[in-house]
Amino acid sequence: MKIGLVGYQGSGKSTLFEWLTSVAPDPSHTHTGQSAMAAIPEPRIELLADIYKPKKITHATLEIVDTPGLSRTHEGNAARLALIREAGCLVLVVAAFDGSDPASELRSFEEDLMLADMDLVSRRIERIAESIKKPIPRTEKEALAHEDATLGMVLKAIESGEPLREADMTDEQRKVTRAFRLLSEKPRMVVVNTADDEDNPERFRACAPEEIPVFPVPAGLELELSRMSPEERAEFEEEMGVGGTDRSHLIRTMLDASGQRLFFTAGEKEVRTWLLPKGGTALEAAAGIHTDLARGFIRAEVMTCADLVRLRSEREVKAHHLVRQESKDYVVQDDDILLIRFSV
Ligand SMILES: Nc1nc2c(ncn2[C@@H]2O[C@H](COP(=O)(O)OP(=O)(O)O)[C@@H](O)[C@H]2O)c(=O)[nH]1
Ligand SMILES: [Mg+2]
C-alpha cells in the first residue's frame, strides 16, 4: 500500500519525505511523484534478535510517496489528483509556519478532495443515464441501475460533507465505490509542519476531527538535525533548546492510520516483521510471505513476543503450552509470532 504525502504546494511534503526516507527529492519527479521506502521501527525485533541471534534482521517497510502539491487556484490539479488516487492512505501535510493557519488549510484541502470526488461520481452518473437509455440486456440494465442508486447515495453523502469512510454503507455499496478509489474514502492522518520555534505544538492536535490522528513536526528543522553528526546535533539541540521529534512514533502512527499492523516471523536464519491489514487472517499472512505458503497452508503455529521474551526460548514457550495451533481463518493479533506449516 502506498502512503501518499499530500497537501498544497509549499506545505513541506518534500521536506517530510526526505526526513522520513533519507532519500532526497529528485526535481525531475516533481510532477510524477517520487516514492521511497521507510523501515518501520519495531523495538520488539531487537528483543527477538537477542534470543535467536539470527543471521539477518529485516524490518517491514512503508512505501512513502511524495506527491505533487495541489495548487490553490485549482489549475492543473486534475493530473495531481489522479496521482493522489493511487495512494491507499493519505498523510495530509499542512503548513503552520510563516503565518499560515493549519486548521483552515486542512478544511480547504479536504474540500478540494471532496470536490474532485463529486466531479468523478457525477460524471459517472451522467454516463450511466445515457447508457441506460440504450437498448441493452436486462441484466446489464439492472447492474447499471444498482450502480446509479449507490452513486446517488455516495454523492449525497459527499455533498453533506460526511466523509465516506464513516458513511454507513453495505459491502455491496462499498464494492461499487472501491472502483472509483474515492479520496474521501481513504484512511488518513494529518502532519502539521510547524515553525522551528513553535513552543506549543500540541495545540495543533485540535485542527482535525477527533478520529483523525494529528502529528505536529517541525519538518524543516528535523531534516536539518538529521543531517548533522551526533556531536553536532547534541551541541545544536543544547544551544537552541530544541529536542528531536520521534520519527519512529510518526512512522508507527502512519502504519496504524493505514489500517495495517505488523506480525513477526522468527528463527535462527532471520527475525523479521511483515505487514498485514488489520483483521487479516493467518492465510493472508502466509500469502504475504510467499504464495507457496498460502497454497500449501496446513496451519499456523502462533506464540506471542511477550511469552517468548519472558520465557527466553521457544522450547520453554512450548513447555508452557503457549504455542497455539491456528487454522487459516485465525485473525492475526498484535504481538503474534507466526510459523506457517505448509506442504509443497
Ligand atoms: N520555516 C519553515 N519553512 C519550511 C518548513 N518546511 C518546509 N519549509 C520551506 O517551505 C518550502 C516548501 O517546502 P517543500 O518541502 O518543498 O514543500 P512541498 O511543496 O510541500 O514539497 C521550502 O522553501 C522549504 O524550505 C518548515 O518547517 N519551516
Ligand atoms: Mg514537493
Structural overview:
It is a single chain. The chain is built from 13 helices and 12 strands. It is α/β, with parallel strands linked by helices and 344 residues long. It has a domain at 279-342: Beta-grasp domain (Ubiquitin-like (UB roll)), CATH 3.10.20. The protein has a 6-stranded mixed β-sheet. A 3-stranded mixed β-sheet has the order 3-9-8, with helices on both faces. Helix 1 packs parallel to helix 7 and helix 4 packs antiparallel against helix 5.
Basic shape: flat
Q: Radius of gyration, rounded?
A: 23 Å
Which percent bin holds the helix content? 40-55%
CATH class of one domain: Alpha Beta
Order of helices and strands: EHEHEEHEHHHEEHHHEEHHEHHEE
Please count the beta strands (DSSP E, at least 2 residues each): 12
Q: What percentage of the residues does DSSP assign to strands (E)?
A: 15-25%
Secondary structure tally, helices? 13
Spatially, the strands of the biggest sheet line up as 2-4-1-5-6-7
Give the rounded overall mean pLDDT: 94
- Helix/strand class: alpha/beta
Ranges where pLDDT stays below 50 over 5 or more residues in a row are none
Straight-line distance between termini: 29 Å
Q: CATH topology of one domain, what is it called?
A: Ubiquitin-like (UB roll)
The ligands found in this model are: guanosine-5'-diphosphate, magnesium ion
Looking at the overall shape, the CATH architecture of one domain is Roll
CATH superfamily caption of one domain: Beta-grasp domain
